[in-house]
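Work package 3, deliverable 3.1, input record:
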Amino acid sequence: MPPTTLINGLLEQSLPVADRGLAYGHGLFETITLQQGQPIAWQAHFNRLKAGAERLFIPLTDNIEQILLADLAILLAKQSTQPERQVLKITVTRGCGGRGYAVDAGVSINRILQLNAFPSYPDQPSANGVAVRLCQTRLAIAPQLAGIKHLNRLEQVLARSEWSAPDIREGLVLDTEGYLVEGTMSNLFWCRDGVLYTPQLDRCGVKGIIREQLIRLAKQQGIQLEEGLFTLGSLCQADEVFVCNSIIAIWPVIQCTLADQRQSRWPIGPITQCLQASLSAEGIY
Amino acid sequence: MPPTTLINGLLEQSLPVADRGLAYGHGLFETITLQQGQPIAWQAHFNRLKAGAERLFIPLTDNIEQILLADLAILLAKQSTQPERQVLKITVTRGCGGRGYAVDAGVSINRILQLNAFPSYPDQPSANGVAVRLCQTRLAIAPQLAGIKHLNRLEQVLARSEWSAPDIREGLVLDTEGYLVEGTMSNLFWCRDGVLYTPQLDRCGVKGIIREQLIRLAKQQGIQLEEGLFTLGSLCQADEVFVCNSIIAIWPVIQCTLADQRQSRWPIGPITQCLQASLSAEGIY
C-alpha cells in the first residue's frame, strides 16, 4: 500500500517532472515520528526546515507552519484507523521551473506530506544493541550544505549500497579528510571516561533532531560533551557507542566491522541507557 | 507551454513522489541539442549516461539505447511542426522506493524525456563573447561523484543564485581548495602562448560532451592541451578564454568580474575561433 500523500494540500501521488526537487535536489525534507497523530519534537523539526530553506533560498510564507500542520490534519482525517505510531515525511521543494539553474522568483514552493507505517524492530535493537560497519564512501566537505536535511543525498545512497547483510543495521561514514561524521541515516555519539563525544557537523553531515535533544539533555544532566573533529581511533577507544535518529531514537552500537575486517566491540553502557531513559521521560520516545 | 514530456514511454507530465530522483537525487540527466530531430553527439551523451549509471548502481537493460531512441521518436511524432533546433533533456532515475537509502533490487528505473524550445541569443554571444563572474560558492571535492551528470546539483543552484544581472551570462566556480573547476552550466577553457588549458574533473565538476569533443579536436589539430589543477592566476594571465556546453557550443569570455570587483578582460582569440569553426565543420554546431 502506498503511503497516504498530500501535495500542496491535495491528495495526489505524483508531482510535475518540472519540479526543482527532482531536477536538482532543490529542496528539503524532515522525517518525523507521529505518536497518536502528534508530531514528536515538531518545533525542532520545523526550525531545521526553516533554517534549511533560508540556506537554499526557498521562500517560506509567514504562515507555513500553520499550513503544514493543517496539511497533516487533512492527512490524518483520511485515515480510517490511526496507528499508534507512524512516520511523517515532509518534503518542501523550490517548486517547478524550466531548464537552467536560475530560479524564477514568482514560482511557489511545492510541499509534500507522506504518511508511512512505523518500522517494526522485532529484535529490539534499542535494548539489545546493533552491529554496524565502516563505509568506504566518504562525505565531501561542503560547509554551505552542512547540517541541513537537503535532497542531495547521493553520498548516503552510495554508502548504504555498500552492504546488504540484514544483521548490519547502519554504516558509519568519514569525511574526505578521514574524520568521523555520522551514520548513513543517523548521528553518532560515543563515551569515554564519562565524557560524551559527537562529530561537529559544520563541514558535512546532517544535524539530527535527536542529536540536538541529546546535546541539550547532556548539558542539563551535567554530562561533559565534546563536539569536534575526531578520527576512528577515538571511536575504537570508546567505552560505549550509540547512533540516533528521529525514528529509532537511540540504538546502542555493540560492534563495528572496520575496513580490514577487524572488529571493535563495545558493551551497552550506562550513559547510553541513561540518555534513552531521558528521551522517554521527556515523551520524545 | 510546458515541454512535451514522455515518462516510461507514455505522455505524462508527472512522476510518483516516491521516485528516488526526487527523494535523494538518485538519477542522471543529459541535455542534448536536437538538429532537425537528430540528437547531436548522441553516442557521447549516451556513453556518459551509461558511465554515470554504473557509478550510481542504476541498472540499465542491454536495449536501453534503443528504448531511449524509440521514446524520442514517439515524442517527435507528437509534434505538429518540428523546430529546426530544440533541446532534449533525458533524465533516468533509480525508480520508486520506500523510505530509506537502500535500493529494492526489483524496482525498475524511471526514464523521462522532455522537449524544450531552443534558447535564442539575439546578442550573438558566440560571435561577440560574454561577460562572466567569479562565484563565491565552492564545489566540494567528491571523487565518487565527479565527472558524471547526476541529479545532486545544489552547488550549481547556489552558485547561480549569486547574480541576477542579465548581462552576466555565466559564473565560474572554484573547488573548496581554490582550484578552478568550471562554469555553473558549462566547462571552462583558456589559452596562453598557444597552449590550451582546462581543469581536470576527477575531483568535482561535470565532464561535458563539448569539452570531450574539444579535447579530441585539439589533439587532432596539434594544439597542446593541459588538463590539471589551476588557480585563478592562471586564468587571469590567459590570452583567450571560453566556456562551452551542448546548447551554447562555445562562448568566448571577454570579461570576468572577480571577488574584489576587479575585472579581467580577454580578446576573442584565434584558437577559440578555430575550435568554433571545427565544431561547425564536424556538424556538431
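The helical segments of chain A are 20-24, 42-55, 64-77, 125-128, 154-160, 209-220, 232-236, 270-281.
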